Amino acid sequence: xxxxxxxxxxxxxxxxxxxxxxxxxxxxxxxxxxxxxxxxxxxxxxxxxxxxxxxxxxxxxxxxxxxxxxxxxxxxxxxxxxxxxxxxxxxxxxxxxxxxxxxxxxxxxxxxxxxxxx
Length: 118
Description:
The protein is mostly beta strands. It is built from no helices and eleven strands. Strands 2, 4, 5, 6, 9, 10 and 11 form a seven-stranded mixed beta sheet that branches. β4 (32-39) and β5 (46-51) form a beta hairpin. The mean pLDDT is 97.
């Protein structure tokens, strides 16, 4: 079955860095757009970043210049390098996959917790 499995979350001090990974399996993800979303406690899930199969990227304004999304198509991996982390980045981070042109993900991971202490 299709699985997206996130890893790399944890507790970090403000200003620190973390690298999240998402391992995709169970089908071909050729042509799929890979997303990162996050959901803080008591808040709605929000978009963070996406990367297309060809490597085009988009970021939420609040993470521009601090987060970098990359993917390794040969390994079916997606990464989110997060630097200069702030307490407001604290959330559960989710990896998702959608067909190019679709606005809604077809597959979701289970999430990984990122906690940034001040």
